[in-house]
Automatic annotation (TrEMBL):
This is Putative drug exporter of the RND superfamily. InterPro entries: MMPL_dom, Mycobact_MmpL, SSD. The chain crosses the membrane at residues 20-39, 186-204, 211-234, 246-268, 289-310, 322-345, 379-397, 525-542, 549-569, 581-601, 622-644, 656-682. It holds the Pfam family MMPL. Residues 110-132, 693-715 are annotated as: Disordered.
């Protein structure tokens, strides 16, 4: 029966007060955005990508980095200048290299290492053995700025060269500078691109010239609030936020917030056909949509908070960062968004304004026909879906090796090409230097042990300061390769065996090695925890055991298929040289948490309808009612994550593509075909042990109805 007015018992004063509630909510959000706005702009000032902040304090390379920073000149930025000429270095070239060095030594005193004689060992050797290159290293104090600010002026200072003499400025600091340049302005780029993508999709979805703006305003308020909240978390609790997590925060809030908006608008549009008063219609829409939205948010938040057990600070930091974003999106879409819709009334849906009518005719559509087809061919739908997922999962046999830092760039910058040139002309200095700290009394012994370790090209004793002596070690293998990592492990084993030396091995490649090892350990800890937590949330929501297990199984299979299909694309089509260490865990978390979302929306509606119609009709009704909106939500979420593929960093492209592909796979195949087919096959046992799993007692002594038979009232 339609509800045309406020519930009985409400006084005119009560109805009048109710009219002010949406305005009060909007006013409170305006105050909140005014307060939080300035804080949101400060988030970029507390982001960090340094290894000492990212790695756990217990990592050996972290201890080296902290100790190095505490010593005089230990935090200097090291650049390597590699000059090369295909026909061979000339006398004029040598003179130019000397002049460049003298200029830079004067400009950036005093930590400069000059070119040395040809007979000296070490990274300061000037000419190459093939006579086609020269090089020198330059240690620049951090007082002159961060690598990103220094590398440009250094390159500009060496532009005046004889024709044909090429120069590459490389080294650990140059790589860091080029990496920082990639992230420079990335938050604004992601935000603007995401807004454009979401706007276009909302316009296409609603086919309204104005309705699209309302969810965008609400999500924008949620994004601003979430950034300010994360800034406060960093200042108050020391949470680590890197540029990657900052970009993911924007994607999460816009993607998930827009999904919530789509689900609520679908229920609200239905309610407007049955209720003349827009406030009453919104109350009914919230009663229908809010439980599923809250359960969805709780699932994602619970999954994200599982990251707190990770040792990698950048990973554990994403937990509260993402949770804050989801929570802000949830609150905004259940308060500000409904308030805006109520204030604007039915006219916001123009030109397709939903009219109040007690006789709303539901026309059979695509999802009704799909449900009927699945019902007729349950085994075909089940096995066919599993077959597609299985074929995609075969892609996991491709290249899933770790991605080197030098291979992170879509277009290799000068610092990366410089490493290639350095290895070509100075093969003995082809790897990134390791830094070893040892007690001064044991320096000679440690030095001898290191020189005798396979894979070590050069080992040079350094300065003694603060009770420590440092040794620079150059491996023979290319940076961030398995061979170089093996050398680092051998060096660590060798120096740790020197009693009393307290030797520690660090450096850029050692940091990358420790990061990969820690990330692998985090995967083994976090993934089972996420599965357990999400399963518990599903069980509480659906008040069943079988349904949560089935839904979790479909999501895990979907993840394997999405990962396999993505690996094929990365390896065969895009030519990426591996998978970044952070991608598997991030993709698993997002796809499991967000993939379960769509199953929650479908299963919660199916459970609601099953109590009235039975399992078969309940699932078919849920599929027809939620099919369009969930598919739209999947497209929006996939598109927001796909924004990451426009960025010039392989890791972000991999995360964006994998999650976008997985969300589409889950929304279009798993949730639309596989889950309904499995539910129809399993029948009421899907809801075991809740009361929905028990046979319905037939009225008036009629024969018991089969589980998949339509209820009499539906015939």
């Amino acid at each position: 029966m339609a509800v045309n007015a406020a519930p009985s018992g409400r006084t005119p004063a009560g109805r009048l007060a109710g009219r002010w509630v949406p305005w009060l909510v909007i006013g409170l959000w305006l105050v909140l955005t005014v307060v939080m706005g300035p804080l949101s702009g400060k988030l970029s000032s507390v982001t960090t990508d340094s290894a000492a902040d990212t790695l756990p304090a217990s990592a050996e390379s972290t201890k080296v980095a902290v100790l190095e920073d505490s010593l005089p000149g230990g935090d200097d930025n090291t650049f390597v200048f590699v000059y090369h000429r295909a026909s061979g270095i000339t006398d004029a070239d040598r003179a130019m290299v000397e002049r460049h060095y003298n200029t830079l030594a004067t400009r950036y005193p005093p930590k400069v290492v000059a070119p040395t004689g040809e007979d000296d060992e070490g990274p300061q050797t000037s000419p190459s053995s093939d006579g086609k290159a020269m090089m020198f290293t330059l240690d620049v104090s951090t007082t002159y700025g961060a690598p990103e600010a220094i590398v440009g002026p250094l390159r500009d200072a060496a532009k005046d060269r004889p024709a044909g003499l090429e120069l590459d400025v490389t080294g650990p600091a140059a790589v860091d500078g080029d990496m920082d340049a990639v992230f420079d302005g990335i938050d604004l780029q992601v935000l603007l691109t995401t807004i454009v993508v979401v706007t276009l999709l909302l316009i296409i979805t609603y086919r309204s010239p104005v309705l699209w703006l309302i969810p965008l305003v609400a999500v924008g308020a949620a994004a601003l609030t979430s950034m300010a909240t994360v800034y406060l978390l960093v200042k108050g609790f020391g949470i680590v936020v890197n540029d990657q997590n900052s970009a993911l925060l924007t994607i999460l809030v816009f993607g998930v917030g827009t999904d919530y908006a789509l689900l609520l608008i679908a229920r609200y549009r239905e309610a407007l056909h049955h209720h003349e008063n827009v406030r009453v219609a919104m109350i009914h829409a919230l009663r229908g949509a809010a439980p599923a939205i809250i359960a969805s948010a709780a699932t994602v938040i619970a999954g994200l908070l599982c990251l707190l057990v990770a040792d990698l600070n950048s990973t554990s930091g994403l937990g509260p960062i993402g949770a804050a974003g989801i929570l802000c999106a949830l609150v905004a879409m259940l308060t500000l968004f409904p308030a805006l819709l109520v204030v604007l009334g039915r006219r916001i849906f123009w030109p397709a304004i939903p009219r109040f009518s007690t006789a709303v005719v539901e026309k059979p559509g695509l999802w009704v026909r799909l449900g009927a087809a699945i019902n007729r061919r349950r085994w075909v739908a089940t096995l066919g879906s599993l077959g597609v997922l299985g074929v995609l999962a075969l892609g996991l046999t491709g290249n899933t090796g770790a991605l080197r830092e030098q291979d992170q760039f879509v277009s290799a910058p000068e610092s990366v090409t410089g490493f290639t040139v350095l290895r070509q002309h100075f093969p003995e200095l082809g790897g990134q230097p390791m830094t070893i700290f040892t007690r001064p009394a044991h320096q000679e012994r440690v030095l001898d042990v290191v020189k005798g370790t396979p894979g070590v090209a050069v080992a040079i004793p350094g300065q003694t300061s603060g009770g420590w002596a440092d040794i620079s070690v150059f491996p023979t293998d290319a940076p961030d390769t398995a061979a170089e990592y093996d050398t680092i492990k051998r060096v660590r084993t060798a120096v740790h065996a020197v009693s009393g030396a307290e030797a520690m091995v660090g450096g850029p490649s050692a940091e990358n090695l420790d990061t990969e090892v820690t990330a692998s350990q985090d995967e083994k800890l976090v993934i089972p925890l996420v599965l357990a937590v999400v399963l518990i949330v599903l069980a509480l929501l659906l008040r069943a055991i079988v349904a949560p297990l089935i839904l979790m199984a479909t999501v895990v299979v979907s993840f394997a298929a999405a990962f396999g299909g993505s690996v094929f694309v990365f390896d065969t089509i895009l030519g990426f040289k591996g998978i970044d260490y952070s991608v598997p865990l991030l993709a698993f978390l997002f796809l499991v948490a967000l993939g379960v979302d769509y199953n929650i929306f479908l299963a919660s509606r199916a459970r609601e309808e099953t109590a009235r119609l039975g399992t078969r009709e309940g699932m078919l009704k849920a599929l027809s009612a939620t099919g369009g909106v969930i598919t739209s939500a999947g497209l929006v979420l996939a598109a927001t994550f796909a924004v990451l593929t426009t960025l010039p960093l392989v890791m972000l492209i991999e995360v964006g593509f994998l999650v976008a592909f997985g969300v589409l796979l889950d929304a279009l195949l798993v949730r639309s075909v596989l889950v309904p087919a499995l539910t129809l096959l399993i029948g009421r046992r899907m809801w075991w042990p809740s009361r929905l799993s028990r046979p319905v007692e037939p009225p008036d002594g009629q024969r018991p109805r089969a589980d998949d038979e339509e209820p009499a009232l539906q015939r």
